[in-house]
Amino acid sequence: MARPQNNYLGVTSARKAVSATLVYLVLAAIALVFAAPLLWVVLASIDPGAQLSVAWPAHPSFDNFAAVLTVDTTLRPMANGLLMCGLSAILTMVVSVLAAYPLSRYQLRFNRPFLYIILFSTGLPVTAVMVPVYSLFVQLNLLDSLVGTAIFLSATQLPFSIWLTKGFMDGVPISLEEAAWVDGAGGLQALRSVVIPLMLPGMAVVAIFTFIMSWGNFFVPFILLLDPNKQPAAVSIFNFFSQQGQVQYGQLAAYSLLYSIPVVVLYIVVSRTLGGAFTLSGAVKG
């Protein structure tokens, strides 16, 4: 009587093993598709004669890095990008906190419609508004301005950042603010002294999100910054595709690796310093 049950369990185990194998094969194929471009960038960066195919370089060297590590090609565009994206991240973080505070703490009549408008705004493509934005920049004499471009990049990231900040702020117990109010603190003082210190990891997430989105934005600075000396790294990478119709793949790969360093460093620094977790468990005394 026990033999049919053992056969059934054996068949079921075999089917599970086959299914697991198929799943692993599919996942391995997907991982290979994503890893191939990264592997090409790494190998091509040390190959002076790199082409589009993925191949181990015949004579590995760092000549490509030496060729792109100049002021005009890399250093100045990187500095422009850091200035523009850093300013955009700071502006977005400050405005998001000030906008999310009343949405999180006060039951206003227009909270829900305002949140729906913000949610709708997150889906609007930036390219659809670039023509009126370009005209506005011309009238305000902001064209070719790093600060003006940073302000517009900050505005494009605000809808999602406000949603994100409101979610983090909702996690801060309002009883902590009430204790500050009892001690005579005003709304802004309670926000600065109680709420912001407790949601620093959330604000860091908003800043990183804004920085990364701005750092990889090619279209907006390409339209609003005309002077080559003011263009960020995201636009300067276009120069490798326009030199007499020939693409210098090795230098392009080396530049791509250098272009990725600020984002990786920012992620490592923030993850090590903030730990990625809120520490509210001990803030409220039960």
Explain how this protein is built.
The chain contains 12 helices and no strands. The protein has helices spanning 2-45, 63-68, 71-105, 111-121, 130-139, 146-170, 174-182, 187-198, 200-215, 219-224, 233-236, 249-274. α3 runs parallel beside α6 (146-170), α3 packs across α9 and α6 (146-170) runs antiparallel to α9 (200-215). The chain starts with a helix and ends in a 12-residue tail after the last helix. The model is unreliable at 280-286 (pLDDT under 50).
* SSE string: HHHHHHHHHHHH
Describe the main β-sheet briefly.
none
Low-confidence regions: 280-286
Gap between N and C termini: 59 Å
User: What's the overall average pLDDT, rounded?
Assistant: 83
Please state the overall shape, judged from the principal axes of the Cα atoms.
globular
Tally of helical runs: 12
* C-alpha-based Rg, rounded: 26 Å
Strand content: under 5%
Alpha-beta content class? mainly alpha
What is the β-strand count?
A: 0
Helical content (DSSP H or I, runs of 4+): over 70%
Give the SSE map.
Blueprint: H1 2-45, H2 63-68, H3 71-105, H4 111-121, H5 130-139, H6 146-170, H7 174-182, H8 187-198, H9 200-215, H10 219-224, H11 233-236, H12 249-274
Question: What's the gist of this structure?
Answer:
The protein is mainly alpha-helical and 286 residues long.
Features of this protein?
mainly alpha, globular, single chain, 12 helices, 0% strand, 286 residues
